[in-house]
Amino acid sequence: LMSPYRSIVSAEAVWDHVTMADRELAFKAGDVIKVLDASNKDWWWGQIDDEEGWFPASFVRLWVNQEESTTVETVEGASPSPSEVQNGHAEASPSSSDCLCLGQTVQNRDQMRANVINEIMSTERHYIKHLKDICEGYFRQCKKRRDMFNDDQLRVIFGNIEDIYRFQMGFVRDLEKQYNTEEPHLSEIGPCFLEHQDGFWIYSEYCNNHVDACMELSRLMKDGRYQHFFEACRLVQQMIDIAIDGFLLTPVQKICKYPLQLAELLKYTVQEHSDYRYVAAALAVMRNVTQQINERKRRLENIDKIAQWQASVLDWEGDDILDRSTELVYTGEMSWIYQPYGRSQTRVFFLFDHQMVLCKKDLIRRDILYYKGRMDMDRYNLVDAVDGRDDDFNVSVKNAFKLSNKDSDEIHIFLAKKLEEKLRWLKAFHEERKMVQEDEKIGFEISEYQKRQAAMTVRRMTKQKGHRSVPPGYPPPMDPMNPGQYLVGDGMEQSEFEFPEPERCKSPFWQSFSRLTPFRK
């Protein structure tokens, strides 16, 4: 096929393209494709290395390298309509009006906005079809086979997929109402994202569960019965030729795709457009959703380390850390006075979400800890303490703060060695409360399955080490905060205040465990 272009044309893949038919070109996001023919507005013909094939134009951004300029122009093609694409094949209907011409620096802005709107609507309709196939083709059939799947397995494999399906149907229904079929560029879809913004948080539970789902599926697929069962489900539902794990990946990919689509839509929406401010707000909302989902996924990846740390602490009493907490927020050594005893003691404090654990260092082996108690952070208020004589304890204090019990007269006072350390603790307590509130908002918690997996990991490592008093091995030491920097601020933006770095001498064990704290760039 001869290229209609008058200069070298390459395209960068924006999303992965999984081939569903012969003569399609497979690629991953970031791959560079040489465009050989773009005479059809929906499906282009391209080449990667020695492979050639069709691919959807909406999956790439066009790079135009002109000899006279170093500027890179980006163009996004329109998405294929359901009537033109059947089972992954496109009905080619080339026309001269559809052919992109490099003599033009950019397409008409309204046409570009229409292309993006059409692409969003098309992907939403296809996504609903995928969700329906998962719920009706797989989940419903699995629930009928109690001889093969128990409730725990179904919960691990499919998570809250039915909740996502119900939410997504309502979202698409509202999108369709806002879609202007005659003039797509006039569509106002920004408000739909804002109206449904709280509903998107249900993806957090699904994404957090996805790794466990893949592990469980991999285990089941070792049995030929399950391979045949899932393949039979796919054929009965008349689904495309993708394995079940590919279908279960689509919600994870979808929630990550929204910011990309909204950013593209905003780029081709003029400020005078009635949808502009809504699209801008929707983009900020969806970026925050994906950021928080990624953050919670990172926290789940750390639970093994938290369980290992608990196993290394001697004389542990009470519930496991993971029964209530998922994140080490901050750690450090301070002097501590507890009313009414009034005697100053030095302790190492580990602040997690919901609780703070108190430990004492071994007199000889300073890298070994003894459990000395914990504080339920949901029951305490943080109170700053001014330098000078404190009325509650009748002692002179400096760089201090207090925790007062909400239900009694119980008060604890903590004294940091330096002002910088006090400020870090105050920030840490603020972050802990903020984290708890956000977790409650979206219902984030560790599943019993994930707790059991972490416990099994700890038992296996403890058995290999021979006894539980040896601290677990961690990567090379890293301070929980960047030297000399204290991060403050809410939302996406943060300010930085410079302080001299406090002189601290920590053993490699404390430094390595403090790597779990989020106060790092």
UniProtKB/TrEMBL annotation:
Region of interest (Disordered), residue spans: 71-97, 459-480
Keyword DNA damage attributed: no
GO molecular-function term, one example from the UniProt record: guanyl-nucleotide exchange factor activity
PH domain boundaries: 327-434
Keywords: Cytoplasm, Guanine-nucleotide releasing factor, SH3 domain, Synapse
GO CC term, one of those recorded: postsynaptic density
InterPro entries: ARHGEF9_SH3, DBL_dom_sf, DH_dom, PH-like_dom_sf, PH_domain, SH3-like_dom_sf, SH3_domain, SOS1_NGEF_PH
Gene3D superfamilies reported in the protein's UniProt record: Dbl homology (DH) domain, Pleckstrin-homology domain (PH domain)/Phosphotyrosine-binding domain (PTB), SH3 Domains
Residue ranges occupied by any DH domain in the UniProt entry: 112-296
Subcellular location: Cytoplasm; Postsynaptic density
Record-annotated SH3 domain positions: 6-65
Quaternary structure note: Interacts with GPHN.
PANTHER family assigned to the protein according to its UniProt record, in alphabetical order: RHO GUANINE NUCLEOTIDE EXCHANGE FACTOR 4, RHO GUANINE NUCLEOTIDE EXCHANGE FACTOR 9
Task of the protein: Acts as a guanine nucleotide exchange factor (GEF) for CDC42. Promotes formation of GPHN clusters.
Identification of the protein by name: Rho guanine nucleotide exchange factor 9
Organism: Oncorhynchus kisutch (Coho salmon)
